[in-house]
Amino acid sequence: MAYPSMLGFQDATSPIMEELLHFHDHAMIIVTLISSFVFYTITMMVITKLTYKSMLDSQEMEMVWTALPALILTMVALPSLRILYLMDELNFPNLTVKAVGHQWYWSYEYTDFEQLNFDSYMIPTQDLTPGQFRLLDTDNRMVVPVNSPIRVMVTADDVLHSWATPSLGIKLDAVPGRLNQTALMTSRPGVFYGQCSEICGANHSFMPIVVESIPLDHFEYWTHSMLNNA
Amino acid sequence: MSLPKPMMRGLLAKRTRIVLPMAFVSCGGLALFYKYVVGERRKRTYAEFYKNYDATKDFNAMREAGVFDSVQPSGK
């Protein structure tokens, strides 16, 4: 999860987020290369007294500084498109969870099980118990089995929201009247936090998302207990 | 006694012939440094983490610490 003075991304918890991290490193290599080259060139041009006053045409230079950026852009675009299409793949999900955004809470529907629905409200600061995180913890968490492909469908009941969990590499807009879909797979058990990422009113900052990833046998036990308590 | 004729042309070109390759080499070196020190290191870190990762042991440790809401520690 996020921590104070954090600079980079959160640790990846899904294969897609790992791919995104590696792509970001790749893009940063190219950005570092271009920025340092431009900085070096400009510095060299500024600190010299030498000039060439007869410069006309320069077909070779024009060719180079057209072709080289095109090549660099291709080097960025190809891995980017690869990840874009990877994120769209849905490999035979074992479970479907619907996340519905409301003002100002999320509700989760596990329609694979008869009546497993619940709301997820942020725990107010004054009600926090030791060990809970301010503005991040919720009363009910979205529980999923670890290492299982899951289909998450996101929509909204009123205004635009966005269901985002940085460590899973997911950000999906919740649009009223529309069902957006993404694939989710957690690589390890744990608790993963996110926050609403589309301005939705006064309490936009106070409707967090908590995903709890547990082994399948415990997940089944949890679904039974939730259905019995419903 | 006459002085040798000074070099009067091609000064910028001579400088550029040195500066431009230095730019490519130093910036390329910086990019390679970033690639191996940051990029490849991160890939190695993730690969090593998951090589001997025991999800069950990790889960049990988190469970006993009371991290989860859906699963209580084994004593309760």
UniProtKB/TrEMBL annotation, chain A:
Q: State the needed cofactors, names only.
A: Cu cation
Q: Which reaction does it catalyse?
A: 4 Fe(II)-[cytochrome c] + O2 + 8 H(+)(in) = 4 Fe(III)-[cytochrome c] + 2 H2O + 4 H(+)(out)
**MF term (GO), any:** oxidoreductase activity
Q: SUPFAM superfamilies recorded for this chain?
A: Cupredoxins, Cytochrome c oxidase subunit II-like, transmembrane region
- Domain Cytochrome oxidase subunit II copper A binding, by residue range, is 92-225
Q: Where is the Cytochrome oxidase subunit II transmembrane region profile domain?
A: 1-91
Q: Which UniProt keywords apply?
A: Copper, Electron transport, Magnesium, Membrane, Metal-binding, Mitochondrion, Mitochondrion inner membrane, Respiratory chain, Translocase, Transmembrane, Transmembrane helix, Transport
Q: How does it sit in the membrane?
A: Multi-pass membrane protein
Q: Where in the cell is it found?
A: Mitochondrion inner membrane
- Source domain of life: Eukaryota
Family the entry assigns: Belongs to the cytochrome c oxidase subunit 2 family.
The UniProt entry, under NCBIfam families, shows: CoxB
- Its protein name is Cytochrome c oxidase subunit 2
Per the UniProt record, the source organism is: Betta splendens
UniProtKB/TrEMBL annotation, chain B:
Q: Which residue ranges does UniProt annotate as crossing the membrane?
A: 20-38
Q: CDD domains, alphabetically?
A: CcO_VIc (cd22901)
Q: Which GO terms describe its biological process?
A: mitochondrial electron transport, cytochrome c to oxygen
Checking InterPro entries in the record gives: Cytochrome_c_oxidase_VIc, Cytochrome_c_oxidase_VIc/VIIs, Cytochrome_c_oxidase_VIc_sf
What membrane topology does the UniProt entry give?
Answer: Single-pass membrane protein
| Biological role stated in the UniProt entry | Component of the cytochrome c oxidase, the last enzyme in the mitochondrial electron transport chain which drives oxidative phosphorylation. The respiratory chain contains 3 multisubunit complexes succinate dehydrogenase (complex II, CII), ubiquinol-cytochrome c oxidoreductase (cytochrome b-c1 complex, complex III, CIII) and cytochrome c oxidase (complex IV, CIV), that cooperate to transfer electrons derived from NADH and succinate to molecular oxygen, creating an electrochemical gradient over the inner membrane that drives transmembrane transport and the ATP synthase.
The similarity comment for this entry is: Belongs to the cytochrome c oxidase subunit 6c family.
UniProt-recorded name of the protein: Cytochrome c oxidase subunit 6C
Lineage at the top is: Eukaryota, Metazoa, Chordata, Craniata, Vertebrata
